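WARN  no MSA supplied for this record, continuing single-sequence
INFO  ligand: zinc ion
INFO  echoing inputs
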Amino acid sequence: MAIILGIESSCDESAAALIGSDRTVLAHRLAGQEEAHKPYGGVVPEIAARAHVQVLTPLIEAALKDAGLVLDDVDAIAATAGPGLIGGVMVGLVTAKALAMAAGKPLIAVNHLEGHALSPRLADASLEFPYLLLLVSGGHCQILRVDGVGQYRRLATTIDDAAGEAFDKTAKILGLGYPGGPRVEALARQGDPKAVPLPRPLLGSAEPHFSFAGLKSAVLRAVQSGTHRPEDIAAGFQQAVVDCLVDRLERALSQSSSTHSPFVPSEVEGRDRKGSRMRPSTSLGNAENVETAFAGATPGKPKTLVVAGGVAANGAIRAALESLAARHDMGFVAPPLWLCTDNAAMIGWAGAERFALGLTDPLDLPARPRWPL
Ligand code: KG4
Ligand code: ZN
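INFO  complex generated
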């Protein structure tokens, strides 16, 4: 069994994990930065980078101790090399490089999105390629066809906000604080999802892309009207997100088995979001890249619907996707909640998958704020 040290530092979570290639999580240590960013209502890149510097090495030492290992027992060191807030990514990557150099171990540069995309395979040994993945986080909202390690075909993305961003902004508008997703979900449980009429942007449109900016503005107007209960607004908002995700996935499902070449807008995600998370995201560029990325892909319809990323922790979304999968006679996999939000186990696991294929990286590899999957 190979043992991989995984390091994550691309946003506001510093984490270190030791992962076995047999899917054992030997150790996982995570330090969030919620308190540091709270006064600003979102992640401040400079504060995040400094916090990573302070905690990352002690976290790695603690994880090794938890697993009863020393660095020499590790077979490779995997770290997020992008996309993300560049200061934080550099801290994690430089730490990984220093350890790799000192211990004479190979370095594996992991794309953070690949970490999310492969995380369900850490949780579920029976999950095979190809699968249809809804990747929903604070910085991304994408539908991907995952055909293998390094083989991703992006079928859809958001033309404005990511789903997690919409949750965070709704939380802010409702005065619930940061981070918003879990707080909106908790409040929504007490509300009536039908009480406040809210839009479902792009519902029924031909391409399976997402849009959440209009929904966020409608939430703002509903709050300003002063005529609705906050719990009803939260419930209505969450239901609107669920309806959009389900509708867009239905569309993607009807396209994913065809040879249809999707239109993938470039440079639409990951713009700076003042007062919110500012995770730069990837862009696949153009249709030509899409086809290249898809070269050698497994043909046929994916048999499993998979959800990953921080928003995948939402119970209403998980339940709706599970019934969608059942309607399409597909399996459904959602990682446990701790594996949905940012963590180092998914980076260690993506490292293990790459290591098994002999994919390692040179020590002069640069950190990448943007990095197409
Ligand atoms: O994957 P993640 O930890 O970080 C990024 O890569 O962006 O995702 C964080 C996002 C945040 O926007 C947060 O509000 C959202 O995931 N989130 C949730 C829930 N838990 C986290 N959104 C809705 N419901 C939740 N329970
Ligand atoms: Zn993430």
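The radius of gyration is 20 Å.
INFO  checksum written, moving to next record
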